[in-house]
Here is the input.
Amino acid sequence: MSRDVDEATEFLHESMSLTRTLGMRSIEAAPGRVVIDLDWSPDLLTAGGLLHGGAVMALADSAGGLSAFLNLPTGAAGTSTIESKTNFLGGVKEGDTLRATSTPLHVGSMTIVVETVLTVGDRLVGKVTQTQAVLHPRA
Here is the structure.
């Protein structure tokens, strides 16, 4: 199910309130690809004026979580991150917009594995692989 940008951003903010707090914007939301942007902000920095790694990881986790959610099997109740591996390859500086692009690598009945590529323009700044547990209703 593909959503327009405004609808996708509102869904993102309603389902994960931290995304609203950090100012994330959903650019694309479909089962095969999720794209979310986060602008550099003076409120989200670490020493040296770079975007804090926690903000970067929150973006990647949000994109990966939305990707997993959009790929849930019939009857599943939700998803939750159970493992995440991040490689930071570059910093995000003033004026930059960080983009997270998530694609599913494995969609199963118990877990979904998602790869998220983090870029600023054409520059690769990080890569994340995460495993999401598929949550089923309790009987």
Notes: The mean pLDDT is 95. DSSP finds three helices and six strands in the chain. The two ends are 28 Å apart (CA to CA). Residues 5-135 form a domain with the Thiol Ester Dehydrase; Chain A fold (CATH 3.10.129.10).
